[in-house]
Design brief:
seven-stranded mixed sheet; six-stranded antiparallel sheet; binds flavin-adenine dinucleotide; 10 helices; alpha+beta; 2 domains; single chain; FAD/NAD(P)-binding domain
């Protein structure tokens, strides 16, 4: 039997922060990850940059150390709005390995949790499967940081009910060999009021961001080009639902596309294996249409090519696990404060929709705080939940799911375990 003080299931955004901080402060820590690298949605689903939230956030030691590590590989820039969270997903895999190795956190790749041995409301050990072998891990505390709450599903934890609607999934990709000079000049010319476009030089590299969606909330400068492509049969209406791009540090001439948003006439349940598999197929077909469209309509893309398609579909929400407290939309909007909170944030309630003009972004007037009770699973005395599975209602999760908040959640659960073990 392998003995640990902290076992983190899922080495993604929240899980890697939990594992790193736990091991850095002396806990015998293990991360179990089903993929072959750390980072989860950040690396596998190609989701970047870290959204800017409150500059007074807490539990940021992992994030600060991650930024410093990335700098060693030229895998990070600070953008013109002061956001230091523009990172390179490929180099992040190396940076995270190096960080976890340094603090002596054990990591098991290619490994999934398949079962748990419990007694009353206590988890005694878990069974993991690696290359068709089963192995038992014994730990004092556990974290479900699997994004989809896969560990909680095994434990039969209470899953919070969803409203009738869901948020769409997105399959992200990269396009490389873009003539950035030509493209950025054209973009600045098109988006004269710079409403959604920014171009910025960092260390001799051109960095930029722009967007265009089918919601009429903004006067999108690129909108007429998308409409023309639909008329010409080069795009389908659903391909215009959401288009957003960011350049990537250390990858000159490459953009990360926060699209296609996969929309059908009915909402897709990311936990339904048939529907989720279909979404992948549709997503890749959309990627091809979008790429051909960009090559034809956007100057600078003439010699470009698709260089990466995410190996994990981007899921904004699936299972939310019931904790000792369920955080609500009112908690977000009222800015309620707590003793020893997990995070301070001001990121808005950001709900993507399947419907045209269905997107909602609700800003908060005051900062909000998250209490630790939302990260303590209600069913077990030694189980935490961290990341987008946080115990929160649908709307509150839509604010809490950003990467900086997930880092703080992971870090906070590790710190709680450190305190508990110290006190014993
Ligand atoms: C399309 C899209 C765009 C987004 N844009 C942004 C953005 O620009 N900025 C931002 O800050 N946030 C953004 N977000 C939100 C943010 O990226 C996610 O909410 C966050 O990364 C989720 O972190 P997590 O730790 O909960 O899950 P993940 O990072 O997905 O980690 C879960 C990990 O668990 C592993 N796992 C799953 N099941 C098992 C198992 N049974 N055994 C072992 N391991 C397992 C997975 O492989 C993965 O590594 C976006 C999200 C999406 C989907």
């Amino acid at each position: 039997m392998n003995q640990y003080e902290l076992t983190v299931c899922g080495g993604g955004t929240a899980g890697v922060a939990a594992g790193y901080i736990g091991a850095k402060y002396g806990l015998k820590t293990l991360i179990i990850e089903k993929n072959i690298h750390l980072g989860g949605t950040m690396t596998s689903a190609l989701v970047m940059p870290v959204m800017k939230s409150n500059t007074n956030n807490i539990n940021c030691e992992f994030y600060n150390d991650f930024i410093e590590e990335l700098k060693k590989y030229n895998g990070q820039i600070t953008y013109s709005d002061g956001n230091r969270g523009w990172f390179n997903p490929e180099l992040s895999k190396i940076a995270l390995d190096s960080m976890l190795e340094r603090v002596k956190c054990d990591v098991l790749y290619n490994t999934e949790i398949v079962d748990a041995v419990t007694e009353n409301n206590h988890i005694k050990s878990i069974c993991i499967s690696a290359k068709m072998l089963s192995l038992y891990i014994d730990s004092l505390y556990y974290v479900d940081a699997t994004g989809d709450g896969n560990f909680s599903q095994i434990l039969k934890n209470n899953i919070l009910k969803n409203p009738n609607s869901r948020q769409p999934m997105t399959l992200r990709f990269h396009i490389s060999n873009i003539d950035m000079k030509t493209f950025s000049q054209w973009l600045l010319e098109i988006d004269k009021d710079r409403d959604v476009t920014s171009v910025y030089e960092v260390n001799g590299e051109t960095h930029l961001s722009t967007a265009c969606t089918w919601d009429m909330s903004k006067n999108w400068a690129l909108r007429p080009i998308f409409e023309q492509a639909v008329k010409n049969g080069d795009l389908k209406e659903q391909d215009t639902a959401y288009f957003q791009i960011f350049t990537i540090p250390g990858m000159p001439g490459t953009i990360s596309l926060n699209c296609p948003r996969i929309v059908l006439d009915k909402d897709i349940d990311p936990l339904d294996p048939f529907a989720a598999s279909k979404a992948l197929t549709l997503g890749r077909m959309q990627i091809w249409r979008l790429y051909c469209f960009l090559k034809k309509y956007f100057p600078g893309f003439e010699n470009s090519y698709i260089s990466n398609i995410a190996d994990m579909i981007g899921i904004r929400e699936s299972r939310r696990v019931e904790g000792e407290k369920i955080y609500t939309k009112d908690d977000i909007l009222s800015g309620k404060t707590y003793n020893n909170p997990v995070l301070h944030a001001d990121y808005p309630i950001d709900i993507h929709s399947y419907n045209k003009d269905g997107y909602t972004l609700q800003h908060t007037k005051v900062d909000y705080e998250l209490p630790l009770k939302c990260l303590k699973a209600s069913g077990y005395d030694n189980l935490y939940i961290a990341g987008r599975i946080v115990s929160a209602d649908f709307e509150a999760q839509a604010a809490l799911r950003i990467q900086s908040s997930c880092f703080s959640m992971g870090e906070a659960v590790a710190r709680d375990v450190i305190n508990l073990i110290d006190k014993k």
